[in-house]
Structure prediction request, 419 residues.
Amino acid sequence: MKTMILKGDICYSKTKKTLACLKNGFLVCDSGLSAGVFPTIPEQYRRFPLKEYTGKLIIPGLIDLHTHGPQFSLRSLGLDKELLDWLEALVFPEEAKYSDISYAEQAYTAAVGDVKKGPNTRACFFGTVHTPSTLRLMTLLEESGLVCRVGKVNMDRNCPDSLGEASAEASETATRAWLGQCDAYKNVAPILTPRFIPSCTDDLMRRLSAIRKEYGLPVQSHLSENLREMAWVRELCPESTGYADAYARFDLLGPETIMAHCVWSDSAEIELLAQAGVFAAHCPQSNMNLSSGAAPVRKLLAGGVRVGLGSDVAGGVHPSIFRAMTDAIQVSKLRRIQDAEDDPLTLEEAFYLGTLGGGAFFGAVGSFEAGYEFDALVIDDASLAPPFPLSLRERLERVVYLSEDRHIIAKYVRGAPLF
Ligand code: GUN
Ligand code: FE
Prediction:
């Protein structure tokens, strides 16, 4: 099953800084895994079907390490506000509507349709506090063929009554009931999702920590995003040595933890994240829209933190991780003006972050090296060609910067075609 050969112009990250490019190459998918990229079809694969994509770009599927399903309807709205005011004025009232399953059905159907036609093959979603709506999001994602982690959000303080959970105990009970209904999925799995420190009491964090150990679950949350948020966390957790420490106290940091943003992580926090093996989800567009700042991506990487990209819809307007790659490069250039130590990110580095970097959260994902899961995009960039020849790298650069879904003509996840 799922053994085939794709012929085309193939690009993928070899390392953080190097891109492998092969024109008229053959990419072999053997039982849902890549068997590698070759200049001619290896003897043992000659009898398998050949997908003819000559002249088209073939690249790994993109990885969105951080997004919010219920915020797709809010994209581009209220972005004259900063993070905390935007959460209160727009996000919390919108998320409260997901107590109504028919509202969730309508909004999530549109959101999943959007992601399906774009370049992302895998994503980590925040849902809302509501179990039926979150299960509906999981079912729609499962039907789409995307591979996802989805979290029922936990929040029991500092939010409106219409959204917050009644107590830490009620949040725990609902989370356990939700987890009891997550076994039916093949490509979608749960992830524990305490919203962020200001939304969760210590009592709730202790209960979630116990659930994490009991079920062996990954965790996602927000960290060091915005200066006003940082000041609030210091007020709420005077005993913590920093924001990440406020999670570490409950043993919520580990190699299966994703922390979105890390814009204001200092060297001590970077060391803590690196030691715990945490993934930082860099969300540059959200960081611009919500006036959060320019994250120290190069310092995170140099400090040994694993980094991927996130769209952070609706802090970010665009779900496409091509757009996140472009934004990451552009934000890094502005950062360079303030911090001469940090060279801007290159195309190679941004492409790595959006494929292999974030892909590592899902296992052997984000590359075409033999043994990696076969997630691939086929892109017809003929209409983007200038009247002079471009190298493969230049063609990829144009596709990344234009970030248009319409050039994607085929999308494979774990060897299965989504379209
Ligand atoms: N911090 C807590 N909740 C949120 C959210 O929904 N979006 C962003 N960008 N930051 C958050
Ligand atoms: Fe977020």
